[in-house]
Design goal:
Layout: E1 15-19, H1 32-45, E2 49-52, H2 64-78, E3 84-87, H3 93-106, E4 110-114, H4 123-136, E5 141-145, H5 147-150, H6 156-162, E6 168-173, H7 178-187, E7 193-196, H8 202-207, E8 212-215, H9 222-233, H10 237-253, H11 261-269, H12 286-298
Parallel strand pairs: 1-2, 1-8, 2-3, 3-4, 4-5, 5-6, 6-7, 7-8
Helix pairs in contact: 2-3, 3-4, 4-6, 9-10, 10-12, 11-12
Length: 303
């Protein structure tokens, strides 16, 4: 076990963190030129950090070498200009450790580690899982709780136990339950950041002490999402309400089918990426395309 007694929690990012798609060519191969263009766009748009190879980045269908290569590509591109939050979760603790070690070696700033899906571990099992990863890896760890996709739910009490580890610095709460997130904010140590992972409710959580939003919607309107998070962090409830009303339809449309199907289609419509997506995911069903187009047009940004 690694001695963590002298370590501090150092991933302190506030604002809009994009849960970045992994752009692909028509044959499903990674489009590295499009990935670099997306990274440059986010840097210019005020995105606070890049979330690489999470659920939105199709981590489930990238090979392990591809997964590591995308993280490395993002870190090498960044050269410290913008923090890289590497998705390294797995339902095998050893695999999660190996991915996290690779992310650390590649120069990522922190790891985002999802609760183990499908296995359905107990609370004790999840605590042991995340502690084992944090013991093994030298960079900060961000927990990720998304019970709607994993079928397991890390309770606030379990998260508080994990926050005692000097390398576990934050949590992405994708439950969409603002009251639950606020409870965690109020009970967690000051060094802990609580991020939303639910675009429709993110600003409300930030207004009540959340550190930011790890966002799907930021893929398509990065300037607007950065502005929304800045307003919420400043406590400007009127601006938050105005922006929230304008983008509510887009937040909903981006989840008409399983993420990242709609957001990848949206980026293709915007001319940012090609149409590649990996099975078992398929392109957005035709019945949703006109509605998503209208939602995008209603939120159009200048760049």
């Amino acid at each position: 076990m690694t001695d963590t007694s002298s370590l501090t929690k150092t991933f302190d990012v506030n604002g809009s963190i994009v849960a970045l798609v992994t752009p692909m060519l028509a044959d499903g191969q990674i489009d590295w030129a499009a990935l670099e263009a997306l990274l440059e766009w986010h840097l210019a748009s005020g995105t606070a950090a890049i979330g690489a190879v999470g659920t939105t980045g199709e981590s489930a269908t990238l090979t392990v070498p591809e997964h590591c290569e995308v993280i490395s590509f993002c870190a090498q591109w960044s050269k410290g200009r913008i923090p890289i939050l590497a998705g390294t979760g797995a339902n095998s603790t050893q695999e999660a450790i190996e991915l996290s070690l690779a992310a650390a070696d590649a120069g990522a700033d922190a790891c985002l580690s999802v609760t183990p899906y499908y296995n359905k571990p107990t609370q004790a099992g999840m605590i042991a899982h995340f502690r084992a990863i944090a013991d093994a890896v030298s960079i900060p760890q961000v927990l990720y709780n998304v019970p709607g996709r994993t079928s397991v739910d890390l309770t606030n009490d379990s998260a508080l136990v994990l926050f005692e580890h000097p390398r576990i610095c934050a949590i992405k709460d994708a439950t969409g339950d603002v009251a639950r997130g606020v409870d965690l904010i109020r009970r967690a140590p000051k060094l802990i950041n609580v991020y939303s992972g639910d675009d429709p409710t993110a600003a409300q959580l930030i207004l009540q002490g959340g550190a930011g939003n790890i966002s799907v919607t930021a893929n398509v309107i990065p300037q607007t999402m950065a502005q929304l998070c800045r307003a919420a962090l400043a406590g400007n409830a009127n601006e938050v309400a105005a922006i929230g009303e304008r983008i509510a339809g887009l937040n909903k449309a981006l989840f008409w089918e399983s993420n990242p199907i709609p957001v990848k289609w949206a980026l293709t419509y915007l001319g940012r990426i090609g149409a590649g997506i990996r099975l078992p995911l398929t392109p957005l069903s035709e019945q949703y395309q006109a509605g998503l187009t209208a939602a995008l047009d209603a939120c159009k940004e200048n760049s």
